Amino acid sequence: MKAVDHTFADVELPKPAPSGRDLLVKVEAVSVNPVDTKQRKTKTSGSHVLGWDVAGTVESIGKDVTLFKPGDAVYYAGDVTRPGCDSEFHLVDERIAGRKPKKLDFAQAAAMPLTSITAWEAFHDRMKVQPGKSILIIGGAGGVGSIGIQLAKISNLTVVATASRPQSIAWVKELGADHVIDHRRPLPPQIAALGLKHVDYIANFSGELDAYWEAMAELVAPQGALVAIVGNTKPLPMDVVRSKSATVCWELMFTRPRFQTPDMIEQHRLLNKVGEWLDAGTLRGTLKETLSPINGANLKKAHEKLESGTMIGKLVLKGWS
Asked: Alpha-carbon distance 272 to 275, whole Å?
């Protein structure tokens, strides 16, 4: 699919050929994420293939590939600097692809890569969380929050997650949140009602940073850490955070592939580990809704649902007409 003036069209494109460390993947299922809608809106001219969450089968490989062979089932989030995965065939560097979990079908697997990488990197590469501490996850029922709650529990953290509707509250409790508070109401009084003065870590997995910044600064523990996955739109006052010597960081899971960092292969290793956890039942999938087939009309519906702000878990498109 490609975006044309912020709409979707079904088009025929040449089949790409892999080189170097690239895999050519036959796409079976794709998922939508906020990055898709943001990329759609920022492309002001021409046409662009969107999509950065996929599960499929390796069709062929570049000459330098060592991690996979044709026929292998893979899942990955890809590279935002390259064409997206909303296409029947897609190229991806093997170092950011993982082996598809055996117990998940392609649709279930496509829901997992981008959010799993984002949450894990936010916790361990950015905030460097330590077991036995507390974490507040803002946006607990969304795609990143849904896997983030589970990964935080694996990391032995006490999890306070935000949710505001009965369905989303029930969902985050199912995923293992120790406490649930309402992000539509002031956060500090609700944290105080739990008997907590501060939380050690705060992960803002919502699409809004400015509105929560004051509460985040107030709630983070001295020498704690904050992470966000979106940028601010206005200058953020730093005095309170600075007085606490708190760490402030951002997580962008595309950083490694975008800059071809020496440790790119960490995403391959992480996706393999997440796949093992999913197969073992240590993690549960976050797929909540499926559309079929993969085409412009269904991608439009998926983007509209994502932009409505009512998404719980992940939405996936599967199969081709």
From this structure: 5
Q: Find where tokens 């606490």 sit.
A: 244
Ordered domains of the chain (ranges, CATH): 2-112+286-318 (3.90.180.10), 115-250 (3.40.50.720)
Q: Are 287 and 313 in contact (CB under 8 A)?
A: yes
Residue 277 has pLDDT above 70, yes or no: yes
Q: Residue 294: name the closest of 117, 147, 115, 110 by CA.
A: 110
* Span 216-264, pLDDT tens digits: 999 999 999 999 999 999 999 999 999 999 999 999 999 999 999 999 9
Task: Give this prediction's pTM.
Answer: 0.94
With 50 as the cut, is the pLDDT of residue 60 above it?
A: yes
CA 30 – CA 22 distance, rounded (Å) = 19
What tokens does 213 get? 């910044």
Give the tokens for residue 199. Answer: 């939380």
Q: Are 141 and 312 in contact (CB under 8 A)?
A: yes
- Integer-rounded Cα Rg, in Å, for the chain is 19
